[in-house]
């Protein structure tokens, strides 16, 4: 039987998955607390701070981040671009991708085209974007992208997620990952289970395990080279409307248990989505996960500080938030 796996890009695998183990202060890490991935999405963030959502304003904010001083080099390992961002330049005409690659930061690209209704289900969805994906990945690779992200969404209720939704989203993720690897791009696999609803922690852990098991079955069926992938799972949490409140330790242990039971050891990195919750401090929630997965946080303060004004003081304010919060911030 011939080897069905794509020929691995060893240099890229080392850059994205192995090198961080030897540089514990930087990169897409699996065992340290210093990694940040900057996801350049601002469509829902500009209006609340009174800044018009135009391409120029988006470019100016991204430029503010990418041209910050050398302090960011020690904590930001990768940047996930949208299509628009990949082809934007600084005021001096330097392409953003080239700018950050010259700083030793890896460039990624979001390649899915959003969720659409999945017919025959109770409001469930699948993710579109497979059409033409191979051609787009080939072009993105030429234009500087080394990894990609694709998000599939599932929800928990009395009747969901259905077997159809789990199967469909797992196979879409596997097809995406296979196409990425065929074009020399490392795929970040993101099966996200939404925290909406009143389900308890045990229910979320059960669903998370079933979804991840299905995803890795599909990845195997599609001959995806696991050593050349990364996983971005959800944190196992109760629904926002659940009457029972769980401690940070309970949430962290449920998350670690679900990952241990389902993720093959060949997967070199997990980028854990940890949503800030005032009742569960970030430090407490991830303390049990500290040596199990890389942290990934969303935080709005840098955008609040910017408010469309380009100045040295606002750059310093953005960087100060990175320093104060232990660089566990998505800008």
Automatic annotation (TrEMBL):
Q: What GO molecular function terms would the record report?
A: fructose-bisphosphate aldolase activity
The record's InterPro entries line, in alphabetical order, gives: Aldolase_I_AS (IPR029768), Aldolase_TIM (IPR013785), FBA_I (IPR000741)
EC class of the enzyme, as a word: lyase
Keywords of this entry: Glycolysis, Lyase, Schiff base
Gene3D superfamilies under this entry? Aldolase class I
What's the EC number here? 4.1.2.13
Instruction: State if Lyase is listed as a keyword.
Output: yes
Q: What Pfam families does this protein's entry cite? A: Glycolytic
Q: Name one GO biological process term.
A: glycolytic process
Annotated metabolic or biological route of this protein? Carbohydrate degradation; glycolysis; D-glyceraldehyde 3-phosphate and glycerone phosphate from D-glucose: step 4/4
Is the keyword Lyase assigned to this protein? yes
Q: Which reaction does it catalyse?
A: beta-D-fructose 1,6-bisphosphate = D-glyceraldehyde 3-phosphate + dihydroxyacetone phosphate
Protein family: Belongs to the class I fructose-bisphosphate aldolase family.
Q: What is this protein called?
A: Fructose-bisphosphate aldolase
Organism whose genome encodes this protein: Neolamprologus brichardi
For this protein's source organism, the top of the classification is: Eukaryota, Metazoa, Chordata, Craniata, Vertebrata
């Amino acid at each position: 039987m011939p080897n069905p796996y794509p020929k691995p890009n060893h240099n890229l695998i080392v850059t994205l998955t192995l090198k961080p183990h030897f540089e514990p202060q930087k990169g897409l890490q699996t065992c340290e607390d210093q990694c940040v991935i900057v996801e350049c999405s601002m469509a829902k963030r500009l209006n609340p701070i009174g800044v018009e959502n135009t391409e120029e304003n988006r470019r100016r904010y991204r430029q503010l981040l990418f041209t910050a001083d050398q302090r960011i080099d020690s904590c930001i390992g990768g940047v996930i671009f949208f299509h628009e961002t990949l082809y934007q330049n600084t005021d001096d005409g330097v392409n953003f991708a080239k700018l950050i690659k010259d700083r030793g930061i890896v460039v990624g690209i979001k390649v899915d085209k959003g969720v659409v209704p999945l017919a025959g289900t109770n409001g469930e969805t699948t993710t579109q974007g497979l059409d033409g994906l191979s051609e787009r990945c080939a072009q993105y690779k030429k234009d500087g992208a080394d990894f990609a992200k694709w998000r599939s969404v599932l929800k928990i209720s009395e009747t969901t997620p259905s077997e159809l939704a789990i199967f469909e989203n797992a196979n879409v993720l596997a097809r995406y990952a296979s196409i990425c690897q065929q074009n020399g791009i490392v795929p970040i696999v993101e099966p996200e289970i939404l925290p909406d609803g009143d389900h308890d922690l045990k229910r979320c852990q059960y669903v998370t395990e079933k979804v991840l098991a299905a995803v890795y079955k599909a990845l195997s069926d599609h001959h995806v080279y696991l050593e050349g992938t990364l996983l971005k799972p959800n944190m196992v949490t109760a629904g926002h409307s659940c009457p029972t409140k769980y401690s940070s330790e309970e949430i962290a242990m449920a998350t670690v248990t679900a990952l241990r039971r389902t993720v093959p050891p060949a997967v070199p990195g997990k980028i854990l989505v940890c949503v800030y919750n005032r009742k569960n401090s970030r430090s407490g929630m991830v303390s049990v996960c500290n040596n199990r997965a890389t942290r990934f946080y969303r935080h709005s303060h840098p955008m609040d500080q910017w408010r469309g004004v380009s100045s040295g003081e606002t750059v310093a304010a953005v960087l100060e938030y990175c320093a104060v919060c232990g660089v566990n911030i998505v800008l």
